[in-house]
Amino acid sequence: MRTCNNRSVRKVPIVPRFIRLALLAVLVLGAIGGAPRAAANQPPLIEADQSAQVSFPGSVTFFLNAETTVPILQAELRYATSGRAFSNAAVVTFEASTTVEASYTVDAQIDYIEPGVDITYSWILTSDEGPYGQTAESTITWVDESFGWDRLDSADVSVFAYDRDPEFDRFILDTAQQSVDTFKVLYDVAELEPVRIWVYANPADFSQTLRQNSEVWIGGFSMPEAGIIAVPIEAGDDYSVERVVTHEVSHHVLHQATKNPFSYVPTWLDEGLAVSGQWAGNENDLQIVLGALEEGSLPTLRTLTSSFPTDPAAANRSYATSHMAVVFVIEQWGEDAIPQLVRVFREGVTADQALESVLGVDTEGLDAAFREWLEQQR
Hints:
Elements: E1 7-13, E2 18-19, E3 37-38, E4 49-55, E5 59-81, E6 86-107, E7 118-127, E8 130-134, E9 138-141, E10 150-153, E11 157-161, H1 166-186, E12 195-200, H2 203-207, E13 221-223, E14 228-232, H3 238-258, H4 267-276, H5 285-295, H6 312-333, H7 337-345, H8 351-358, H9 363-377
Helix pairs in contact: 1-3, 3-4, 4-6, 5-6, 7-8
């Protein structure tokens, strides 16, 4: 039988013990809550042939072939991308048969998939008596295979590149691993999930990975929760390696060092530590911050707790301010203040609770002291 009529798609949050379904129309993912269902009631594993065909960056098609002992009415595809706290479900219905041939195509621009992530998928078959069986999970990587990626590995990092100078790719790997080693000590984390860095040869190749109508200035992609970095770096561009790769590695190590289900590190601290850890590209930040202080445009740390502005000038001020705030914390409270803060954030406390515990001030108090310190730097 062929996949044809009656399709629906839904998001399935990934939570322990229970799965809550959100029913949706064709390819539209929404938030209509369904009744909880115990994970223990999942049907048994069955033998089947399943595969996936990647047509990067447009779509990915999943295929299923199975022989069953009872007529099957529908096949439900479950797929999840690494780093996401939910899975997606697509239901394909057909006339009952013991020979199942099903396929489902996901439009990766409508339901955007980040470059370099893994897609894990399986199928659940249902008869008129209820769930019949489910297939074992399979995993593919969402990436443009036409580039012919080469892979280099170190203890905590994998670098994927193509059409490159092998010596330069080794430099990227060594730089990333050295940064990991530094941040593991600074953020007090012993074990690390591997970081995968996909290096595109030029901005034009990288732009093909982005969501439609993305901002033209986007020069890289990082998803710490999935362990993925994707960035265009032309061969021989040491400066970009020392600025971008070292910066993004900090985000990945800090994410793993502070991961908890209750809170997150404020953006100013996350970005400030990343900029501080750069090997290049942060030399003028004090002048930028002092200029913003002089003209009254210096952002407060409270406003930098969440996302940064997209305006280039405002974003530049935000990164520079975050960098200098971290420099101030280290100068005022010592280098050990950073691992202490990381350990407290790991416990799932709020930003104010963490700052008060380690520094003795909340966000507003730190901001006021920071501004006084900046006045002394003028």
